[in-house]
């Protein structure tokens, strides 16, 4: 298996990775491997319903909200 080397990693970053690894009960190498795996996985596909639920949970506004908002701004003039 090929190896990977990262040069000039700041000490503070290494320490944060060590703390994170310890919190996850992993070695430093295991933690870095987990981060790399997560970062390179394809994002999960969402259904329209799941996407709508996430949008509502985040409090994002829908097109209806923006239409109402524009009308309110026009009426306020």
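Sequence proposed for the structure above (77 residues):
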């Amino acid at each position: 298996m090929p190896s990977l080397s990262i040069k000039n990693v700041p000490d503070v970053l290494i320490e944060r990775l060590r703390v994170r690894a310890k919190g996850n009960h992993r070695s430093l190498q295991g933690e870095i491997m987990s981060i790399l795996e997560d970062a390179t996985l394809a994002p999960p596909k969402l259904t329209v319903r799941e996407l709508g639920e996430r949008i509502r949970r985040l409090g994002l506004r829908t097109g209806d909200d923006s239409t109402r908002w524009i009308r309110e701004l026009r009426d306020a003039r």
